[in-house]
Design a protein that fits this description.
Elements: H1 9-33, H2 38-65, H3 73-98, H4 103-184, H5 186-205, E1 211-213, H6 214-232, E2 236-242, E3 250-252, H7 257-268, E4 275-284, E5 287-295, H8 308-321, E6 327-332, E7 336-344, H9 347-351
């Protein structure tokens, strides 16, 4: 809905002050310089400027419904010229009627008509241009607001899509493992199904949460790790170290699970030996740092970690922070693959920890 300038309280007050000041100035000129009585000076100023003010209100309201393009600005000039003419002659007839017997004032009124018209035309033209600028700025602001809202909706939709894509990815792997366990170890398969149900139930509860605390995310990860331990039994050991001052910090929900999944996949799938997955959570320079390390076989190309999970995380982080460097991977000489996740934190949030 279009907001007219005069519907804004501050503009209404300023316009009223300008109008009253202009009326006083016109009355003073007529009284002190042209030597007419104060009654004539006051009535002339009030009638002339009131009609002019009504013309300004008409232009303002009209431009609220019709915005001429640049090539049609001549229409505005013609309109202000016509309204100026109407305003001047309406004031003239009203003043003639009130001061019909004052000959000197009648002569002054007739003589001053061109000057009154020029002043009225300049005032109405200025008013028209100011209103056009107001409405165009308002339209531009509304357009930018709609564009920003559309971009935010698109970003939110893509974030939700990426989050939901991860669940089928994990679910399919888990169901394949359940199928394998039903053949070799039905009891463990039942345990895994129970834990998988708890994991998915927790996922549904937090489906609308874009941000979660480190404590909540690690609780979620622990459910995932319990499922993986059922699959790999004694072959999988998890070493988790979390600094106390990070538990209340925030990170995007369901962001860590694909990283841990990759670490288990590239650490266990290519060996029959037991391995240890290390998870470190700490705060450095106002940034939440989460490091996940796993051993890997450098001869296996899959160890480069370019799967769907990490690609999805990079995309989510870029949508949230517009930074491509928040997910980093590196290898060390002892065949250790390290994935580092960086989540910038707000200053006021850290002050509370």
């Amino acid at each position: 809905m279009t907001t007219t300038p005069l519907s804004v309280k501050q503009i209404k007050i300023i316009s009223s002050i300008i109008l009253v000041s202009w009326m006083v100035a016109c009355a003073a000129i007529i009284y002190f310089i042209l030597n007419f009585s104060w009654q004539i000076a006051l009535v002339d100023s009030i009638i002339s400027n009131s009609v002019l003010a009504i013309g300004c209100i008409i232009i303002s309201n009209m431009l609220g419904y019709y915005q001429p393009k640049n090539e049609k600005m001549l229409f505005i000039l013609l309109l202000t010229a016509l309204l100026s003419l109407v305003a001047v002659y309406l004031a003239k007839y009203a003043l003639n009627y009130l001061f019909l017997n004052v000959k000197s004032y009648q002569l002054f009124l007739t003589f001053s008509l061109p000057f009154r018209y020029i002043i009225a035309f300049l005032c109405l033209t200025w008013c028209a241009l100011a209103n056009i600028l107001w409405y165009r700025l308002e339209e531009q602001s509304e357009t930018q607001g709609r564009l920003l809202a559309a971009q935010n909706l698109a970003k939110e939709a893509e974030l939700n899509k990426l989050r939901h894509q991860l669940q089928p990815h994990f679910l399919f792997n888990s169901l394949n493992s359940v199928f394998a366990l039903t053949i070799v170890n039905p009891t463990e398969a039942g345990t895994m199904i129970t834990k998988l149900a708890s994991f998915l139930r927790g996922t549904l509860k937090r489906d609308d949460e874009v941000w979660v605390s480190v404590a909540e995310e690690m609780e979620y990860i622990q459910l995932y790790l319990d499922i993986e331990k059922v699959r790999f039994s004694h072959r999988l050991t998890i070493d988790v170290q979390i600094e106390e001052n990070t538990l209340n910090l925030c990170l995007p929900g369901t962001l860590l699970q694909p990283i841990v999944e990759n670490a288990i996949k590239f650490g266990l799938y290519n060996t029959s030996a037991a391995i240890t997955i290390t998870i470190r959570v700490k705060l450095e320079s106002n940034t939440l740092m989460i490091c996940v390390a796993n051993p890997f076989d450098p001869k296996m190309t899959a160890s480069k970690g370019t799967g769907f999970g990490l690609t999805s995380i990079r995309r989510r982080l870029y949508l949230l922070f517009a930074d491509h460097s928040l997910l980093q991977t590196e290898t060390q000489n002892d065949n250790l693959y390290i994935t580092t996740l960086k989540i910038p934190q707000k200053d006021d949030q850290n002050d509370t920890n």
